[in-house]
Design goal:
Shape: globular
Strand content: 5-15%
Largest sheet: 5 strands, parallel
Structural class: alpha/beta
Number of helices: 22
Helix content: 40-55%
Length: about 575
RNA sequence: GUCCCUAUAGUUCAAUCGGAUAGAACAAGAACCUCCUAAGUUCUAGAUCCAGGUUCGAUUCCUGGUGGGGACACCA
């Protein structure tokens, strides 16, 4: 009852297995059953006849025919042989209407399972560089990371979501230097967080420029950086703390706007010290000295397993931990604090090879740091179109992007009245959909003029479909039509029903692959089926006996779309 | 130079660990609001980078090219 789909797959598999036994065929491999892409091919299909034909010395079609006669179960209505030897299985109609009740009952949790119940998963994403603007790359990271996190939640795991802000660096020293030039009090001239942030962003840019232009300030900038590292009680550290807190607040606001709420942070300043300790302790057993620095050099066995490994510096010759050491410290902190069964983190794909080295080395210090960690990447967003890319620049910041998209949304909305929140919700849907529809890790060719579509395969399309279904349900209620999952006598099972019950397995697979785009594809196709049905059927119809069931179907479809959108971090509006 | 990833309609993406007639959307052309939201629906036209190989069967696996992205010692 809880996991209906697994039950039905088991039933199908068992019926095939006993058919094999009846024909006296021994086969101990896994029987693969799948959903045919084409709905008219049936609800399940197996290629078992083609797999076994050669071994049995039989023609695949004949074998399939023989098998198909022996495959039976109460849930199976028909078994047919097709193509080169596929066996197509159709389910009885009652199965589908029963599933509508299951969807109703489980509601927002339809599609969840208990595969990871009682286990802990840690996800780290959206890690910002404090003092630097929150730009397009962070938004991609956040979108992918949030979807991954929510996918994890569907397994009933105890999921903790954290971020790893970079809070110490020479770059930050430069920004603080510039901040001090203006004077700490200057910050009080700005009222809102975003105004203050704009000022700090200006400090970052100007400080970086000043550092380039004027060699004389370098000693002072380094001193400031050191003040920050060592928490010295100086004006610089005071300025730093103001800036850091503001940046953090802004980060929390910005990610909240995108739909994320973090459970905690691990700061780079914490990871550095610990990282250095680990590296020092495991030199020369894991790490080695070379030219005054401490490095990790993969051995031949490592290279056999992974050709992309290479030598990297963990502690530089000045004795300071590099990013490699900091990330090693981060690994330890994650496992010490959260003790996860699985630790996932998301970065830009350019850091892929880098992390493979860090993790290979870390695995030699502590096995589980490598074995339980999964690094997922997102691609880059490459701008193609002229319109918005020239307006927003090369690395546009998130708030500007959303503002620009909002304008488009208002244009698209025409006469409809939209609140700021509604427009924001639609904009975010459009952007997130564009990011999540493709396989994570691949670069996205982003053409704001076309990719940011509000029609067809798009976030707003899904939102619109949902909103429309809700509108129908409201209308039905006004007219006193009761929603009923009781199948009418002469009801012919629709493609939507044949599609709906597949949702839980799509989610399960998406989690296994950590591939949110499977969910995108599925709910888009579901929405298409639904819209098509809507186009040629009158659903809210007090004079029609079947109206109640049609509404139940509408309700179930809307529920599944909503649940899918939730995984993607896109909200489902009641109206738009 | 070495190594990794990648290549699908004009464009942006799919294709369930080798499966059936390669799915959508945008753009192009033709229809549909006296009925529930036209950000919608229906129809038409259009694609697997090249050359080999593996097998019942290849967009998928292997080899070699070509184009694109990325990594390769003290930056993050």
């Amino acid at each position: 009852m809880y996991n209906k789909f697994m039950m039905i797959t088991d039933i199908i598999k068992k019926s095939i297995q006993s058919a094999l036994v009846e024909l006296d065929i021994s086969y101990d491999g896994d029987i693969t059953i799948e959903h045919p892409r084409e709905l008219s091919h049936g609800d399940f299909a197996t290629n078992i006849a083609m797999v076994l034909a050669k071994k049995e010395g039989k023609n695949p079609r004949e074998l399939a025919e023989a098998l198909s006669e022996k495959i039976t179960a109460p849930e199976i209505s028909s078994v047919e042989v097709a193509g080169p030897g596929f066996i197509n299985i159709k389910l009885i109609d009652e199965f589908f209407s029963y599933e509508l009740k299951v969807i109703q009952e489980k509601g927002d949790f339809y599609g969840w399972n208990d595969s990871w119940e009682g286990k802990r998963i840690l996800v780290e994403h959206s890690s910002p560089n404090l003092f630097k603007p929150f730009h397009i790359g962070h938004m991609m990271n956040n979108t992918v990371g949030e979807a991954m996190t929510r996918l994890c939640r569907t397994t009933s795991a105890e999921v903790t979501m954290i971020s790893y802000p970079s809070d110490v660096s020479l770059g930050i020293g430069k920004a603080v230097w510039q901040f001090l030039q203006y004077g700490i009090e200057k910050i009080n001239e700005f009222k809102t967080v975003s105004e203050k942030m704009a000022f700090l962003g200006k400090c970052y840019a100007e400080g970086t420029q000043a550092f380039k232009d004027n060699e004389n300030i370098e000693p002072r900038v380094r001193e400031i950086t050191q003040d920050i590292y060592e928490h010295r009680d100086t004006e610089a550290h005071q300025a730093y703390k103001i800036g850091r807190d503001l940046n953090l607040e802004y980060f929390i606001q910005m990610t909240a706007r995108l739909g994320s709420a973090f459970d905690g942070f691990i700061f780079e300043s914490e990871a550095g010290k610990i990282g250095k300790e680990i590296i020092t302790k495991h030199t020369p057993s894991v790490y080695t000295e070379s030219n005054g620095a401490i490095i990790f050099e993969p051995n031949e066995k490592d290279l056999e397993k992974n050709k992309s490994l290479h030598t990297r510096v963990f502690i530089n010759k000045d004795g300071n931990p590099t990013y490699e050491a900091k990330d090693t410290g981060l690994l330890k902190l994650k496992f010490d604090r959260y003790n996860p069964e699985l630790s996932i983190f998301i970065t830009d794909s350019e850091q892929g090879p880098y992390f493979e080295v860090v993790e290979t080395a870390a695995g030699k210090v502590h096995k589980e740091w490598q074995e339980k960690t999964i690094h997922k990447t997102h691609g880059r967003m490459q701008f193609k179109g002229q319109k918005m890319s020239s307006r927003l620049g090369n690395t546009p910041i998130v708030s500007d992007i959303l503002d620009a998209v909002n304008e488009e949304v208002y244009v698209r909305a025409g006469d409809r009245e939209l609140s700021q929140d509604q427009a924001d919700m639609i904009s975010i849907a459009a952007v997130k959909y564009a990011v999540l529809r493709t396989q994570a890790g691949k670069n996205i060719n982003f053409d704001p003029d076309t990719s940011l579509s509000f029609e067809g395969d798009s976030g707003p399309y899904l939102q619109y479909t949902y909103a429309r279904s809700q509108s129908m349900l409201r209308k039905a209620q006004e007219q006193g039509i009761e929603v009923s999952a009781n199948r009418p006598e002469d009801w012919e099972t629709t493609d939507i029903e044949r599609y709906l019950y597949r949702y839980p397995i799509v989610v399960e697979q998406a989690f296994k692959d950590l591939a949110p785009h499977h969910v995108v594809t599925y709910i888009t196709e579901l929405a298409q089926l639904f819209n098509s049905w809507y186009g040629n059927t009158k659903i809210v119809d007090a004079d029609n006996q079947a109206s109640g069931y049609k509404l139940a179907l509408t309700d179930a479809t809307a529920q599944v779309i909503k649940n899918g959108l939730w995984i993607l971090g896109i909200s489902a509006p009641e109206e738009m």
